[in-house]
Amino acid sequence: MKSKFKKSLICAAILGSSVAVANTALDSNNKKADYLITYEASSLPAEYEQQIIKNITQVDKGTVGLISLTEEQASALQQISGVRVELDVERFAILPQSPSNFALEQIDSDVTVANFTNNEFENLTQREVTPYGITLTKSDLVADPANNGIKVCVIDSGIQGNHEEFAATNLSGNHSDYSDFWFNDAVDHGTHVAGTIIANRDGKGVVGVVSNGAVDTYVQKLSRTAHGANSGFRTSHILETMEVCANQGANIINMSLGGSRSSDTERDVVDRLTNRGVLIVAAAGNHGSTATDGDDSYLFPASYKNVMSVASVDQNTEISTFSAVNDQVEITAPGTRVLSTVDSESVNVNRFIWNAKTGGYFSSGFKQIDSGNTPYPRISQLSESCFYKIPFDAFLSEYFDGTLSATDKAGFDAATAACQANEGQVLVTYFDVPAGIPDWVSRDVHNIDYATDFPTLTVSNVIGELINSSGLMLTEYNKYGFEYKSGTSMATPHVSGVAAKVWSHFPNCTGSQIRDVLNFTATDIGAEGKDHEFGHGLIDAKAAYDFIAANGCDVPESTCPKVWYENQAYTKGDQVTFNGQIFEANYWTKNDQPSENEGQYKQWKLAGNCAL
Asked: Which of 397, 489, 496, 504 is catalytic?
């Protein structure tokens, strides 16, 4: 769903272009949408019970289910005691950071296939390298564990299950009609993440934090394609996958993904799994900038209290230019230009070069819509029959609802058939938006709800008008199974891998204790103490291992009690820190914020001062 602010912008742009748009479904009062509903068995009116699509999980407030409602119905249910309703918002995987994703770049006019040869990746099939992240985190100074005692669950875009770098690792996973088989990865994201954690030491390729296969890995696949059908996913999908991970015995959940909207239901599930002993690690986000003052917005699930939020540094331990900066950042790991594994059997296009109508060759931003199952030509001849303007009505449907009608999909089918009939090899598409609507509007359509195996790319409306539809086009993609990627997505598995490695040596520790030790032993590389850029600092596997070996699982107690958390229950005598003061609970309490005005007959009483 788009924000009301963005809706107002696009509506203004449409009206400003003098385009008459009737019945665009902007008024959604009578339109149903999927909602997350948390309810107790006795609180839900009987007429709504049959509308529940499925139940997903349990939290302390009751059952969490998925239900289809109008806004009016959702508002009415929200007023019932014991019922909570939240829109099941769409979330996106954090794709590798790309600062110039839509920038035009002019390139040499004598483009040939030779431009795309990458001997470095080809050589990795014959030799083995240790990525800088392994040494920077000092993971190479801690021996691989002898036993498979810890399991990591990777919630992502799947994994190339038969990649040679995973041969010694016990892999398993879950697939669905929505996301397809877990052992395929058309996005290359999940395979890259997994490689940082578990790539095997086998004399070729790369090595991960745990390189002997001693950490079992369970894969929960969320995205089928990068930008085509079933590429986006919702809060309900995340809840389901976290639940499956925990039920499969995962000790650590890695989520290199996120969304800008928080969810009380998602937070409750995170808290419940944490209380069960699961350690959850997530990416802080790629929306940061060290060039601006102030903090960046939160990304979730990373910014929940019971999730380790991971920021990114480069090989010189400088903060990555894209890494989010805020008070929820907990720890830092390498995330700039990280070398790891990718799916060598699926095609993930990473560069698109085209001939302009005015002459010359340019590269620009694009989105790959197809499944990645069909090879792309390195160089091919475009033709009018392989150039498709997506109708404006389809743009409106995709922008506001994230779906295409059967008629719109039939238009794609016809365009694909026409391209194939003329022996075309790649279909290039763009939205036919009216003049006056800014370029960012069509770029803001993240995904296109269309499933195809035929090579299909989409570009913005401005780029579409610049391309010579009868000129040459070139596509670049890597088929050697290794690639550099950047993002907090790449930093996160370093933390999950170190946690798994250290925990495997000391399986009697709890997930919370491992988290505390990793934070306590991190190398302070920013402002003294915990800061908003690096959190507690750069993760240090050797220091964490040495600390537990010498001192056990518990870090030294702070002079202050733990900070009060609104979603945690406290009993009589429990102490917390809040705004630099110590409070003691007079009786059981939850969601009641401590206050200086409270006394012995209130939930909290002031017990002292404490400067954190």
From this structure: 489
